User: Fold this.
Amino acid sequence: MYEVIIGLEVHVELSTDSKIWCGCSTDFGAEANTQVCPVCLGLPGTLPVLNEKALEYAVKAGLALGCEIAHFTKFDRKNYFYPDLPKAYQISQYDLPLCRNGAVEFEVNGETRRVRIARVHLEEEAGKTVHSGDNIMGSEYSLVDYNRGGIPLIEIVTEPDIRSPEEARLFMEKLRTILLYTGVSDCKMQEGSLRCDANISLRPFGEAKLGERTEVKNLNSFRALQRALEYEVRRQSALLDAGEPVERDTRHWNEQQGVTISMRSKEDAQDYRYFPDPDLVPVTLTAEQIETWRSELPELPDQKAARFMEQFGLPKYDAQVLTASKEVAAFFEATVERFGEPKTVSNWVMGEILRLIKEMEIDIEQEPIPISPEGLAELLALVSKGTISNNVGKEVLETMFKTGKSAAEIVKEQGLEQISDTGELEALVDQVIAENPGPVEDVKSGKEKAIGFLVGQVMKASRGKANPQRVNEILRQRLLGS
Amino acid sequence: MELHALRAHQLRELLDKGEISSVELTKSLLARIEAVDPAIGAYLSVREKEALQEAEAADRRIREGRDVGPLTGIPVSVKDNISVDGSPTTCASKMLEHYISPYDATVVARLKAQGAPILGKLNLDEFAMGSSTETSALKLTRNPWDLERVPGGSSGGPAAAVAADTAVLALGSDTGGSIRQPAAFCGIVGLKPTYGRVSRYGLVAFASSLDQIGPMTKDVRDAALLLAAIAGHDPLDSTSIPGEVPDFAAELDKGVDGLVIGLPKEFFGEGIAPEVKDAVLAAVRVLEGLGAKVQEVSLPHARYALAAYHMIAPAEASSNLGRFDGVRFGHRAKEAEDVVTLFEKTRQEGFGLEVKRRIMLGTFALSAGYYDQYYLKALKVRTLIRQDFEKAFQQCDVLATPTAPTVAFRIGEKWENPLEMYQSDLLTAPANLAGIPAISIPCGLNGEGLPIGLQLLGPALGEGLLLRVAAAYEGATGGVESRPKPRLEVE
Ligand SMILES: [Zn+2]
Assistant:
């Protein structure tokens, strides 16, 4: 058994309307090479001009991650050759990143874990290559789309504070939630606007020195991240168990085969010849500017969860589940505003609503939740008044999700009102008593448990509409005289 | 006198009076190019059709009295590392021999907006790397004063064209002296503005922190006119300086009475030809005669300038020239079996020797383990040089020095010895490192009848002051009319 040490490098595309150095659109999915201009194609003579919005978004991301923001920062060139990099250098930040020293907290098995953020810096996205073969060297041809080139990107680098593949996934999920709250990125892993590389090493427990690490790339989903790291833990453990060294290298996660494959060794490590980009002037940020941006940040997940616990008296678990998505949190809060009873609302949202969203595969970041907070409040009022039972309420909710009709409409159309009328209920109870002499005797002779069976029979006879509490009362009156 | 031989401010009067048209003027220049350029080799491409169309449009503007600016109807020729929409921008390199720029450089856009026809593109050292225009992969340019000599470089094409009257006005670029040294070699006026005074957008980068576009003209007044047309903040260039551009022409007649001219002793020492030193000191005495005070000053770190320059410029170049990889534009090697070979072969075939040499130097200077020792140290030297100039300008208004250590040398003379060639930048590179403006103006001929240049350096944004001193000298020495002109055998 070894201690697992993981650090992540996360790349996040910022959702500005235009690219970082030019005015080209950043829309996803356009026809190849239609969102380009001389600047983002790196044509001879062109120069970059910083998109202020990209700077603002990067600072806001840093603030949301609890970072210190640099008052003086600059851009550097990272030089390397690749067809998707039009200038043969990426404008990035080397020794003076925009943000430093942040942290993200998240829960692992009910325990709070804290992963430190070493730095967040602003850089540009490269274009996208598609190869006719497996990789660029083994292909007959490769195609390049420069639409993506020049989209603003932040790189978030953690300290090696993560201790398991599962933790790595949970960290990423929390990071994504925080960034989605700030609105600086749409964080779509499937479109590549959120990506991560992982550095992983193993060491015997109690050992102070870090083991040799490998870098794993191509982690395109939370699942891929966890699986790839689990694979690396197994692979490195096996090597160490056998007394063999772990080679420092960069590895590619192959999702189909479920293995990591070495791409290049330490010896091939590139020298990027970083130096300050002379085409851009250093950026100075005043404390005032930073505070303005801070004040524009929305309430973040941890703050919101704390407030839900405080204001609504919710358990920590509820508060965390509800705030894991800003859409769900907003839905919850709007429902409470109309209906009150926060814990009841929380139970319904965490239970039924999240279940339906999952079952119906609704992407609530992209499309609205099919019912409105008003709709849920109306439904809960019907349940609370006893018009319908709790169980019927759940069925009505599902119908609401699928048809868009209101709770009242559905209840009316399907005649689902609970029968609370004593006369009607007494008639049903008498009928059931008459049809079930055995259980009736059981109850009378003191086996009170049998009363549940009789309640069930009444409910069945009423097609679920009878008010079970009232039925229970009437049965007791009839059979036990109490 | 032929129209092509006149200066812009003279042509302005003739155009405004309706005595000539821009089309006539443009045709005169085209004819002159046809007659003389085969011997000189200044032009890499001539925009005959487009320039005539632009001249026609300018004539309409002048006739209708609509938006007539100082350069409306007056053709400008530009160094072939400045982008002109729809025209070749070759940088005199095989790499870009067939490349057509799809956009205008800001300076070109400003000239076009004023109605100045763009006449053609002028030869240079490949990617502006050189001091003789001999590294051009596309053409040999000869000095109009002596066809066996180089015109200087890297703006050798613009200098030779202005001197040979195949251009009225020209734009060059100056990274370590590339406007001033050829101006001196060809007996014309060349001004390198303050870094950031003129937008670099559209100038194919050699060394981004040093490059500046500037005017190359027959006299000082024309330099003021052309500078005014191109200067000023550009939202497309983050390093361009915000703020109003002063009226440079208004400075020209203010004289030098009371100004203090500093002679930095380090610029008159070893390596400067006596005939050059004598001519420059004589020019300084003329200014003294006009009421200027002369004072010796010291720039103690200037001796390290050339070393620092040849570290910083190649470092930036090695990065700037990475984009020439055969993928998107320019030369692409045939039959490359994979992408790495494509990069290698393309660059091997597309770049000339000097460009490769500088890419190698720069790559080395930026490499891990050498960065601090070379690049960072060079940046520190640069700061010291800037401080030297700041101190000097506390004592004096402008500095006067020779522009180049010698007059124009023979073609092939320094080709074999790059270190000797690099010495050409000795007196000019300091201004680029400090980001300050400097001008070269003709100050006589040597015994062989070859031009000598006087360099004036000023504090940041001091172009007006430089033009004022230069105009005073030019006026006192009888102006352009009294200056000898190159005799071209073809005439
Ligand atoms: Zn663009």
User: Anything to note?
Assistant: The first helix of chain A runs from residue 52 to 64. The mean pLDDT of chain A is 93. The first strand of chain A starts at residue 2 and ends at 13.
